[in-house]
Each structure stands twice: as C-alpha cells, then as structure tokens.
Here is the input.
Amino acid sequence: MRYALFLGCKIPYFVPQYEISTRRVLAELGVDLADLEFNCCGYPFRHLYFSSYLLAAARALALAEAQGLDILTPCKCCFGSFKRAQFLLKDKPALQQEVAAALAAEGLAYSGLCQAKHLQTVLYHDVGLQAIKARVVRPFAGLNAAVMYGCHALRPSRVTGFDNPYAPVIVDRLVETTGAVSVPWEGKLQCCGAPLRGKDDELSLAMIRDRLGECRADGAEVLVVDCPYSQMQADWAFDLMQPKDSREYVQGTVLYPQLLGLAMGLEPAELALELSTPDLSYLLSFLSEPQPKKAHDRR
Amino acid sequence: MFFSLSLYAALLICLLGLAYKVWTWLTTSIGPGSADYTPGQRVRAALKGMAGALFSPRIVPLLKTLALDGLLQRRSFRVSRLAWSAHLLIYAGFLLLLVAHALGGLIIGRWTEYYPTLNPYLFLRNLAGLLLLAGVALVVYRRLKLPGLRLTTRGVDRAAIALLAVIMLSGFWLEAGKILSPQVFGQMVSEWADAGNQAEVRALQAFWGQEYGVAFPGQAAPPAAELLAQGRQLNQQYCANCHSAPQWAAGSYLLSRAFKPAAAALAAPGLLNVLYYVHFLACWLGLALLPFSKFLHLFTTPLLLMINAVSDRQKMDPANRATVRALELDACMHCAVCSIHCSVAVALRHVPNLLLLPSEKLAALDRTARGRAQERRQLETIREGCYICSSCYRCTRLCTAGINLQDLWFAQKDDLLAQAGLGEPYVDFARAADQAAEPSRSQSLLRVRQEGFQHELKLSAQAGTFSECYRCQTCTNVCPVVFHFQQPKEELDLLPHQIMHSLGLGLREEAMGARMVWRCLTCYHCQEACPMGVKVTDVLFELRNLTAGGGSTREEA
Here is the structure.
C-alpha cells in the first residue's frame, strides 16, 4: 500500500504531532507514504474564489496522479475539498475543460484516476480493522472517548462518500480497536467552528466550546479528533480557557493516530504526545499491561 | 587621480548608505508594539543580545551557522542545487576577485610583491572571472527557465545581473585588448626593457608576437628561429620577473584569439581606455549602490542567519524583534524560492495579484513599512495578498536567508488592520453585501423582479434549484448557526429557508446581504437534510463568491 501523503497547510506548523504520529503509525502498519510537494488543496479559497479553489484541488490530484498514487490526507477539510473537486470534474464538462486547460499549461492532467482518501478511510477500508487489531498490544481499559466526525468528511455524503451521514461508524470502530469505548454524545456529527475563525470569531469559538463541553457532559474522558482544523479550534478554546471553565471542558483532545499508537505499544515521544495541549499523559494510566503477541503472530 | 577620487566618492556613498540602513533597522516598525521602542532602546537591547550570544556557549551554534549556512550556503543547497551552484560560483568568484584583484595591492602587497600580470594573480583573476561569469549565466538561465522566477524578476534583479555582466565583460575585453595591443607592448618595453636598443626590441617583438599573441600590424610570416631564441632570452631577462605568459589569463587570452582578426579595432588604444573607465566605474557604482541594492545581503543575510541560530523569535526581547523584522526586509536577495514553492501560487491564475507571492509581498511590506505605499488602493492589494495565504509556513521553512516570512505576514495583517482598518476581506465583503441589500429591503418584499430569473447566474438563479423546495424549513431547523442564537432572525436577517425562497423570487441582493450567508459554517447539515435535494450550502457558497467576484467559474457551469 502506497499513497501520496497530503498534509495540507495546517499540519506541518500548527499540528506537527499529527504528522509525526500519522507517519509512525502508518509505518508500523506497513503503509508506504510518498512525499510530493503539493500546493494548497484549495479549501481556504472556496468561500470567495471558487475558480482558484477548483484549480488548486485539481492540481494536487493531478500531481499525485502523475506518480500513479492515490492521495492520503489526515485533514478532513482537504478531504472534503478533493472530494467535491472530483465530483464536479466528473460530470461538468465546462469546468473540466477549464481546469484541464490550466493544468495543461504546466504539463499536468487529471483524468479522475487519482482518488483522495482520508487517513481513516485508508485505515478502515484498505488496512482493515483486523490488521489494526492484530497490532494492538496495550489496549486502553475503561477509557471513554468521544469521536467527532468532521463536517467536511461526512457531508454532503453524496459527494464525500465517507460514511452514513446520520449513523456513521468508521471512526467509532477505529477507536474501539484501541480498547477505548466510543461514547454516544451530542456533538458527534456537529461543527467545530473552524470555517468562521478569523471571520466571525465569536460564533467560531462558541462551536468548539459547545463541543468540548458536550462530550464531557456525556461522560468522555478524551475527545478524539482527526482534522487539524478541529485540533486548532480545541487549542484555541483551551488557550482562552479561564480556570473556572476547566470543569466544563473535556480533559483533553487526542489525534486518532496518537491514540492508536499508544495502544500499539509505541512510546509517547514517538507520537509527539508532548506537543499536545492540554497534557495528555493522563491517557497512559488507561493503558493495560502489554499483552503477549497474539497466537497468529507467533507462527 | 580621477580613479582615486571616484573611488573615495563611491566609498563615501557606500558608508553613508550603510549608516542609513542601520538607522532604518532601528526605526522601522512592523507589527503591533514595534513602535514602542526608541532607537536608543533598540540599540541597547541589540547590544545586550549580541553580548549574550558572543560571550556564552551559544557562540558555538553561531559559528557553525556562519560556516554552514553563511559560507557554504546549506539552506540554498537543500532547496535547489542549481540556485546553489549559481550562487556559489558568483560568490566564490567575487571573493577571489576582491582579494586577488581589486584589493590585491592592498592585501597581498602587504606581505609580498604584487604584480597583477604575474602568476598566480594573473591566472586566479581569470579563473575567478570565469567562475563569476558562469554563475551569472546560470542565474540568467534559471530566471528564464523557471516560470515562478520569470514572474517575479524585477528591475532590481535585472540591474544587478547587468551590472555584474558589465564589470566582467569589460574586464575580460580590456585584458584581451591589452594582450593584443602593440601600443601596450610598446609601453611595457619602454618601461621595463632597454627601449633604445632597436635590435633587442625587434627580438622581443618577434617573441611576443609569435608566442604571446600580440597583434603587430603587417606580421605575416613566422620570425626566424634565431630572432625568436634571442627574444625568448630577452623576455627572461626583462619581462618574466613580473609578467607571466598571457596564456595563463585563460579567459582573456581565448577572447583575444577571437578578436585577433579585428585587433586594430577591438584593441584600439582609445577603446581600451574607455573599457578601463567602464570597468572601474561600474565597480564603483556597485560599491556605491551596495547598501541600496540586493548586494546588501552580503552582510544582512549571514547576520540574520546567525541571529536565528541563537534566538527564538517568540521569546525574543520585543525591542530586538522589531529590529530583526526591519533587518529581514534587507536580508532578502529576491531569489524567489518562497514564491516558486508557495502553496497558494496556483491562485494567481484567477486572482492576478502578484502580491500573493511571498517574495513580492515582502517587497510590498518593505514599501509600506518605510511609508512608501499608503494609497488605499495599494493597501487593499496588499491586503488581498496577505489573506490569500494558507499560513503553511513553507516560505519560512525554505527561505535561504532565514527570514521568518510568516511572522512578517501576521505582523503585516495586524498593521493593516490597525493603521488602515483593513482586516479579513470576508468581513468587508459581508458588509458590502449588507449595504447593497439595503435599498431593496426598504421596498415591499412583494416586488418580484420583472425580468424573472437571470440566466447568467447559475445555482442561485435557476428555477430548478428551488422549484423542489416546499418550505418545510428543515434546512433552518438543522442549522447550528440558527440554533446558536436566541433570536436568530434578528442576528441573521434571513434564515436558510427564507434565503432559498428569496432567490426563488429573484430577490438576490436581499439574499446576498443577509448575515446568514456570511455566518454560514459550511457544515452542510442543511444540504444533507433537505428532503428535496436543494443544495442549500452550495448556494450560500455561491452567494459569497458572487459578492467577491469569485473568478470566472461557477459551481454549476
């Protein structure tokens, strides 16, 4: 299994622990990553500059296609952006022509062959739950985790095809492989507020604050996110948190590959756990003792 | 006399220019809080910082950076081997020429006798010149070949390349001319040999003509062996002590061979005199312009790299941060690596604003910070460039000069907002849409546009988009924005289903001006939930795009 890793613009600087843990866990699972120099996926342009958005997304897809690789992105907004571009380019000849002309000027082309996948769709569909479970040697015990699906991966489902938009299971199942319990909670399918950050900060911040409060109220000890934007929203809310708020928020947010990596017996430092705020070391106390290798591994 | 006078004048301009530049580093303010420090405070903070770095173990990383990043240019090597080769050629050639040619008498002459016509100087000068010329050729090739570089090449880049080329070519031509010139030979003979002895002069002439390529007029047949042998011996006696064989001047000698058929014209004494003036005056021009040109990076870039090696921009004394930001403006040598690799450069096709490229944004920042761009229009263009940036930090990571570009972009955004009231364009577009909707709001909502649906518009103006809507309000009921507000109608003007309905009636301005459009979180709940498949979120996206101009394409073309 080999993919072109599309980190997007936010991960390298703002959420480096996501890149580190993703690379580490995927290497452990035998997923090979190619590093190409991509442009932005176009997501930030969509509000105001649709043409730039579509060209940017198509260009990144074309770059991966030139290498004969599918894209793997850990970002749900990049994922949604690619999915929409693929959807539009599939059956809109006028858009297709315009984009093709712009790409051809650089000697690039996008035929629709390259698929964009999210880290979790790769883990769920391509690696498979069984293969992941086989690598879990220190499952969490008694850890209640809340998962947040991420708007731009989930909807519109006709375009993104991530999972059932009303009763998704992919992320729950992936979290359960680590031994953690995915608790039902109010904000699971809701918005983190990232799209309005810098545009309407009050509304944007209210969204993530609601989520951080809801998952605590519904009994979660940690919020699992799998999008750099959600992580940055949580970082922002925690930064602004007053001491009196601390009881209302969930204790911390963890990126899925960090959670999985710990259950796979990797060291916290290999997953850059120390870069996450608030401090996530409390998660270690939920880890069970390392289990002997499973029978089929001993052969 | 003129030579020295003009040199001193150039040197004076250079020194005054450097002093002026240092002054601007202490007075230029970029980013909030930078203006709070007086130049005196900034000098004190800088001296304190420097002392702290020089007299501590931090001297080790500092020297390591100077060696690896300053002398060997590791950062450039990592980004582009071609750019690195070009730069190293120019810079090695330049240093060698400076030491072994321009300052030859001054530096080398201190320890030993220095004759520019003697090896190793004769050879080294040519080698250095060829290196530099090869570097200039590579630079020109790169600028022509890479589209990103072609786009960002400015007058200052062309001027710098042209100046180097003029200095190099005039130097080579001058030397080639001297090799060819019988007049120059005559001068040397009268100065160094016994010019009164005609027989000896003839022998020397035979030798220099035959062996050293001087173009004596009317010299057709090779001289007699005896005369040549005598000439060789006299050359040993009079010349060889301070003149090596001109073949050692490899570049100039080759050029002289090419020039030989037209030697009388190409090595005419008058022309050589002009070339001599061109050569040294071009050098003086480079010297005088050094503080005001990209050549200043000779000092500023290593300085910045060393500062970066021992300090963290976030934890730095704010007074020093202000000084370093100003210094960064002068550390850029406009290599355009940042722009070639910019994540959002792809947007240029539809948003033809060069200021979205980092290298150009930096130049614009230089103008605003020094108060040279203050017109509203200019500032708005700069603002557009600032906000079409995905903050990926790639420019900062790759910058060969170690400029923290991303830090400058954030500072620039803050300044634009504080000084000109120019913030996030999205907010301004929302306000503009609100104002445009005002006249329509005051009229009766029953007024439906006479012209009916506007066919040039797509999603938001096609009957098919809305005809399925039977106003069940599901979109509004699932909207987290509507849910967030106690009194959503007061906060949002129109609710999602009302926007869809307004568009169905052709009331586009009212719809575009509704705060709901601009407070949409793009979570797609409404679109997913619509029982009739109306693309509510996509319509809102399109309304925002219509306000902004959005480029030529529409979602549903």
